[in-house]
Here is the input.
Amino acid sequence: MMSNNMENVAPQVMKVVARQVQTLAQEKMEGITVCINEDDMTDIQAVIDGPPGTPYQGGQFRIKLVLSKDFPASAPKAFFLTKIFHPNVGGNGEICVNTLKKDWKPDLGIKHILLTIKCLLIVPNPESALNEEAGKLLLEQYDTYSSRAKLYTEIHAGMKGGKSDVSRKRSDNADQAGSKDDRKGKLMSKDKKRTLKRL
Here is the structure.
């Protein structure tokens, strides 16, 4: 039985969407896994890995694209299903990015949208913030923004086997940092002793 959403989309659009989704499932995009719903090709979901070097590193974020009746003439809406602290993601998960608003062109495909959303995790745009608090923190107190985004990632997007990869990495880094500090302290005290002997 077809879902209501499939019934709302024209057959020629369904062919385009089905072709794009099948291509995406076969192609491997780094850090993006497309989830296919065989019963409803308009139910386009993907899991985006949090990019390295960002507060989202170690997390896995599920997103959903909602196609409009006149897709691709008008842009789909995009939502994070995984809770995230990000300037361009509203409380309901809606994603605000120019590609899905004023910069939309019918020839932009689903792949382009997914890559744009992944890029948004790397370079947020606080000027078009749906989450004003996150946008303000990003601009004025980056460390606080980063800490909160990491916390959300650990709680909502990074759980594997009861402990998140992020927290595991953080504790490993803390252990390494502690041993580096011990070595630095010993080296500094040796250097001080050498300097005092010279005097």
In short: The first helix runs from residue 4 to 7. The beta strands are 32-35, 44-49, 60-66, 77-80, 159-160, 163-164. The domain at 4-160 is CATH 3.10.110.10 (Ubiquitin Conjugating Enzyme). The chain has two domains: 4-160, 163-199.
